[in-house]
């Protein structure tokens, strides 16, 4: 039994199979030696020195250990395991105290490392229950430093330096007659959860960042990893990613800088089979994750010693009674509905997340057994959670804007014309002919080369397509008449959009009912300078200028059309555009890259070879389109080009076509990265 100011001391010492001294416990090596001795202050007597070997799981000894202890692997193999040695220590001390007529003692150690960095972590990993005496102790170095402040910092003291002032035992016995130990070190039995306010002051010298945690780890798991060190109340903040899921990092706040420094020594120690990286962090980082201002959250977390469970995937119509019924009587929620916290958007809409309080571990375990069981028509995910995670999730959702951020509007002098349509939900087997048949009589309103199939990274149809119409009115009419019309047993959604929106999607952005999200190349600090704007080229329409980008071409040229019967300018996609999209992919951007197919029109696929009825009359009234309109150059996309293909191979492939003397070509960035897509830029040719 431990007692404050006891007249009986137990001086305790140990060594590991690795580093000792000031680095004791930093290399995660096991205990191999325990030494203890009882000092009777009342009778001024010293008991017998007890020395016991401990059998480690690995008997690989460091050179420092062999030199300082003189032990061999053969000796350790014959020793008892740690659990038996601890039991032997307890029985030996109890018997000797009984013979002295004592009932309590004070555990004294030469610095905190043996208790905090070795004994508690190893016992935790081996699921051993330590005697109560190892949760309170006296650090002789700190006590000596208070008595002899000129001896230097306590952490730098050694037995040799202390004995330079006075022999250890001669110092302890008479000094204790005039001085009672002023500081008793304690080890927390368990981690206490709690709330943290954003206005709270957090010392940056007490915070660390742990990285590489298993995604399912809880605050108790992290506290167990740092067993022996005292974490501040509510001092574990699990970090979440942009999707609200744990990202394997946590910020941990300790009670003082000494414990923080010992935590840094556990860098690359193991949690299960994973090693955990430990770095310094700041108080601002901790408050950003764990701090909150919501009174509702503060009231929810005000109940102490509660186990928090997070529920994810709840139906939006789920009520508190539905949740209580789902959890059942075997896992009662603390204070009924008061122990539930539903996460909502700022406008009050539910997010499908909720947090639940349980009074004990047994109730929480019963609740976790219902992981992925069905509520209504949805399965519900249940996880252990923390007070900091509650704050973080609430902060994230409450700060979410109700309207998605849109890209900056174009200059007022250039009005947006919604003369395009987007087809969504196309069958993956759909070809250009299927799209034209789907549009029926409206195909005559398609601009030349205005059909753009959207392909995915592998060059396969993504289920989307964009079509440029001759006017916004025609685009509106098509969207009204063809929306949700069937194509090969699937209904296809048709939306009216602008050329700019089409450009954003083809460059990797997203366009949905929630708004327009710019592609990565439009984001700050990632956009090449030439993406800042698409200047209009003389002789081109503003909407077409969004696709024809002279600064991105190898040799920019102004499109020219014959003086008689000018043809509409052709929309080009620069190979450099694809190259930059691939470069952005290598920057770990989480988005889907899309590629446009070569633009076509009904004329280029011979869809009007024999136009019937009214369609034929409408076509007859127009100038007969040629198979390939006059143009300064054509974009040819080649898939499956061999990696070792050169210029001569490509020119040989086009043998039979006449190439202009000043042609330019460019292999895309993706080819240099072993992808199978290649784009050949501005090959000007015509049939012999």
TrEMBL record:
GO:BP terms for this protein?
A: cranial skeletal system development; mRNA processing; RNA splicing
Q: Which UniProt keywords apply?
A: mRNA processing, mRNA splicing, Repeat, RNA-binding
Q: Origin, by domain of life? A: Eukaryota
Ranges for domain RRM come to 206-283
- Which CDD domains does this one have? RRM2_ESRP2, RRM3_ESRP1_ESRP2
Cross-referenced InterPro entries, in alphabetical order?
ESRP (IPR050666), Nucleotide-bd_a/b_plait_sf (IPR012677), RBD_domain_sf (IPR035979), RNaseH-like_sf (IPR012337), RNaseH_sf (IPR036397), RRM_dom (IPR000504)
Database matches in SMART domains: RRM (SM00360)
Cited PROSITE patterns = RRM
GO terms assigned for molecular function = RNA binding
What are the record's GO terms for cellular component? nucleus
**Similarity field:** Belongs to the ESRP family.
Name-wise, this protein is: Epithelial splicing regulatory protein 2
